[in-house]
Amino acid sequence: MRHTTTVRPIAIIFLCLLTLAVFMPQAAQAGTRVGAYYYPWYGNYNGGHRISQSLRGHLVPQQQPSIGDYSSRDSATISAHIDQSHRGNIDFWALSWWGPQSAEDATIRNTIFPHPRASELSYAIHYESTARLGSVSNPTFNNLIPDFRYLADNYFSDPKYLRIDGRPVVFLYVTRAYFNSPKARDAVANLRAVARSEFGYDPYLVGDDLFSGGVNVQRAQLWDAITDYDVYGTVLQKGGSTTPALNRLAAVYDDAQQAIAKLDIAFIPTATPGFNDKGVRDGHPAAPRHMTDDANSDAGDLFARMLTEVVVPRTDPKADDILMINSFNEWHEDTQIEPAIVALPTNIDDSEVQRYTEGLSYEGYGNLYLDVLRVATISAVPSLIAALEDESATIRANAAIKLWMIGSDAKEASPALTEALKDESVDVRDWAKKALKKIHAEPAVGPPGQ
Fold first, then answer.
1. Largest interatomic CA distance in the chain
2. Model pTM?
3. Exposure check for the chain: N or C terminus, fewer CB within 10 A?
């Protein structure tokens, strides 16, 4: 039966989200950190992409981002995305990187990192293996060490760069396909040795190593942590946007954590709001953003349930309780949570035969996904107040950052933040000062989706 979305009053959506926050206290770990895969490739320049080349660009009428058809090289775009990240409780962006001097590299170095507000977030490189390591059937690793030399020279020393245990973090795409031979294992060992001896860094490598078939323990031991970038391929492509698919994802993640439990490998789970890549390629059935096995489900339900039932409860302290969102703005695959214009649902596209929508309805969702993410991941203020007294300066600083993100809803933390102004750590003092300023200067965030 074809799904038709009903637009519910915002107040009802807000009540549902508040209920979720109140009655699922186990959902948010005290130190949950949220990362989002970020694509710095939009705009009318050599190597730039267009948002019109996506499902939303083919809808009738189109559903553009709330800030319009933007350029990633526009300072105003970065400011808006930083604001949106704060609303969604996003701590860092994993930046899609296609090699030295690529269009994405130029955007990161010339627009994102120098931005006057860039220090409000952290950043990691998402190493696009398909552009740097040749074909999956015949991989070559000649670029690996020169690429990391370039990253060490241009990124790792930046104070905004994401670190775990003081080590710069790099996410490597689809390692499960590229690193299956003795040659591949030797390449990683050589990279680590050269990085330590020549670059002076010991990078924290996150392998995209988990898929529907589970963990390859030998391959997983190449990495400091493993993750599952392609949630769609892991469960949604075959299982659809259904409860059994979510149950299967939970089982895959549980099995993965059990497989690496006795090894010094961390686990980073991933959530996605849906999938539809018909704007750029054929062959993949869409995974809509509602639950197809629930007649009363609405857009956003897949994401909310994936977060609260599967992903947030399975974060790993060994990886700073990080979870990933796929994605902030990959519009080509309709995995974005970046705000869209508010628009009524439509299943009409410009093909006249529903080639892009497959008969499914898509609505302009506003800030819905940022607010769902925030409710699912924001730590309770009392736990953050307690964390301000932790013996670890990193944990204390993260707590102050979280309280800054919460803003005016964290007024009860004011005395603890005032005390933190005397902290021995400069980072803790600086973020405590920012948090106090924000707590007493802004109104509370409005209802989700507005």
1. 65
2. 0.84
3. N
